[in-house]
Amino acid sequence: MPLFYTVMETPIGPLWLISTPTGLCRIGLPGESRAAQEAWLARCVGPETMEENPEALAPAVTQLREYFSRLRRRFDLPLDLRGTPFQRRVWEELLSVPYGQTISYGELARRIGKPEAVRAVGQAVGANPVPIIVPCHRVIGADGSLVGYGGGLEVKAALLRLEGALPLAITGGRIGGSAESALPAIAVSPPPARTPGLSAPHSG
Fold it and tell me: Which CATH number characterizes residue 68's domain?
């Protein structure tokens, strides 16, 4: 089975995009190495070799650029989500969380009918293989704190700031021990050429 990848530059840093013939299966966040991508693929997909193919990932690159330019709020991309049935249930529910809004781990557990499984839901959120498109950055603590994020709290805060959803409960100018004023602001790039599908069904 061919696995295609490309690395795109974004305002939060480089992203690894990896796809199977079925769809996008992995987004590696800034700071993650090629070895980390290969280790994930070996665990979750199989002993396949990645082939660099920017053309195969062009739709994902275009839509992510539109997202970072505040031109896209929903994604229309085929996904190949590799995980347990419980993990996929959590990820599917995440796709329903609208742009610019947040949800707590407890509320997410209630929405999937497992109110007692908050910890397991948190672990599934942390295992999300396609961040940004499956918007795990929109999940926050019950008190409005950012809690954790695979790419780091500064990246999570930057994505929420981009969407105008930085939690109001964050006070005192500190997030996870870092000054809020020091968090990276996402510069809005000049708009790319408009492409079809801007009102697509996947929340992003």
Answer: 3.30.160
